[in-house]
Design brief:
The structure is a single chain. The protein is α/β, with parallel strands linked by helices and 444 residues long. 35% of the residues lie in helices and 23% in strands. The chain has 13 helices and 24 strands. A hairpin with a 4-residue loop joins strand 5 and strand 6.
């Protein structure tokens, strides 16, 4: 901006046609912006957010298109369902992420690589329009995988977005409030107080741990008339092992910890159908419950499924090469859960999306300078999961641990990775508030 002002003043001193100073600044700024290549980013998840932090906005005009106008720190999402943290403390507005980044609350409906055009529809006015790009990044993530099991979409709660966490939190409290009413029958009360979690991955296990903490630390005090022995948490896992990506000793530790604290953990339990307040298993077992949380992995979003002009793997993910460029296209890239790198099988984690986006930002910045970039290489930094009772499991290439020390490492690691200074101040404050005063049990 200083260089633009100096240019304007020099032109005025040379006797140029007298035009108001700020008109000339805006004109020059617009010309300078037109010289930039247009980079359109689809999505506001881990990959998109990481790229926005590092891409050179002096070289690229960056436009973000997404129905969601915020970044969500998903590792702490389960905590918000029980009120340990408030919802806004783990989200960051895309509009305030970085200067010189333009955001449009809209969803992409189609990509036309031949003309470097995307077809878009606004979320609010629902009118279609088109946008031109020089570079395009597809980082739309994935959706929950229902495996086409009947009733899941109608009767189960997902845990992937902030509205999901808000609905779960409200439903937990509704179950306790209804169970506490004097006219609730014993059988109905037992149904309401059985909370079923389908999926033994990190999200399902962490939610089970958080819910167990919530009950013993806060709900028993708030609802003294509810028999504690009637509250049940049931975790259903289709395979014969929970936390399949973790070390076996850490899995055994988690299973022992769950059973010690009364969590009903069932492996080899295939869900056949989900009904209102009921889960039916393949072996004929009927589980009555007040809440069903579905956390069984991810599948491509409808937008990705409908893209017929881009190459995909057997799971419907967009195929990219080792430079993260979509195969058989020019200037189209994809990162995160919506993509698959040819010849590699990376886990569907935030860690992969972040590393891919950091690499791609470096690659795009180097390209405008004429520098070559080596192929993408993923570095596994390890995994963590909270299992309740101030205990976590930590699985890294160098260290494998569990218990209180692992829990402290878990909290410290996530605190340092939060997206902004605001969150890094707000989250520990809310942790301290919960420790001192407990969680809020009001509904609104």
């Amino acid at each position: 901006m200083n260089s633009i002002i100096q240019t304007v003043k020099q032109n005025q001193n040379r006797g140029s046609v007298p035009v108001p100073l700020w008109h000339r600044i805006i004109s020059l700024f617009s010309k300078e912006n037109k010289k930039k290549k247009t980079l359109i980013v689809l999505g506001t998840g881990w990959g998109a957010f990481r790229l926005l932090k590092s891409v050179d906005t002096k070289e690229y005009r960056v436009l973000v298109v997404s129905p969601r106008n915020h970044f969500l720190f998903t590792p702490l999402l389960a905590i918000t369902t029980v009120g340990t943290l408030e919802f806004r403390s783990i989200s960051e507005s895309i509009r305030s992420t970085r200067r010189n980044v333009e955001y449009y609350q809209a969803e992409c409906r189609d990509i036309i690589p031949e003309t470097k055009t995307i077809k878009v529809k606004g979320v609010l006015h629902e009118k279609p329009f088109e946008m031109k790009y020089d570079k395009l990044l597809i980082a739309v993530g994935a959706q929950n995988n229902t495996f086409n099991i009947p009733g899941v979409l109608d009767h189960a709660y997902f845990l992937k977005e902030l509205p999901d966490a808000r609905r779960i939190r409200r439903r937990i409290l509704e179950c306790f409030e209804e169970a506490a009413l004097p006219d609730t029958t014993d059988s109905e009360r037992r149904r309401l107080l059985n909370f079923v979690i389908v999926g033994g991955g990190p999200t399902g296990i962490e939610f089970a741990g958080e819910l167990n903490d919530f009950f013993w630390e806060d709900l028993t005090k708030a609802f003294p008339n509810i028999p504690a022995h009637e509250v049940r948490i049931t975790v259903l896992e289709a395979s014969n092992k929970i936390l399949s990506a973790f070390d076996g000793r850490l899995v055994d530790y988690t299973m022992r910890s769950f059973r010690k604290r009364g969590i009903d953990l069932r492996t080899g339990s295939l869900v056949k159908e989900v009904k209102q307040g009921e889960v039916l298993l393949q072996d004929g077992t009927r589980i009555l419950c007040g809440l069903i949380v579905w956390s069984t992995g991810v599948a491509p979003r409808p937008f990705i499924k409908e893209l017929t002009n881009l190459p995909k793997d057997e799971f419907g993910r967009i195929m990219v090469n080792d430079h993260l460029k979509v195969k058989d296209t020019e200037d189209v890239y994809a990162v995160g859960d919506c993509s698959a790198v040819e010849g590699h099988r990376y886990p569907a984690t935030a860690q992969v999306a972040q590393q891919q986006a950091a690499y791609l930002a470096k690659s795009l910045n180097s390209e405008v300078k004429g520098k070559d970039v080596q192929p993408f290489v993923f570095h596994n930094l390890g995994m963590m999961a909270y299992i309740g009772g101030y205990s976590s499991i930590l699985d890294t290439p160098a260290i494998k641990g569990s218990g209180l020390v692992a829990w402290m490492s878990w909290r410290s690691a996530y605190l340092t990775r939060l997206g902004s200074i605001k969150s890094k101040i707000q989250v520990p404050f809310e942790w301290a508030r919960t420790f001192l005063f407990g969680r809020d049990v009001s509904t609104f």
